[in-house]
Structure prediction request, 78 residues.
Amino acid sequence: MDANEIIEAIRTAKKKTPVKAYIKASRPLHFENCHVFTGTDMVVMGDYADIAPVIERNGDAIEDIVIESDRRNSALPL
Prediction:
């Protein structure tokens, strides 16, 4: 892959913002297209565009939340 191909791949790739959300909720929440680890609390890993709508719709059930992000609008998976 030469430099022009790399530049084109970055330019045309769908941008994502991968996040990790630590959620304490009063009821189970369902996240599409995400990795969800449950126990007493939930850890959800996925694109912010998939996680944010669920958080907004279920704000009344969420007791505490921390969202961790190390990059934004990332073009290529690392």
Q: What stands out?
A: The mean pLDDT is 89.
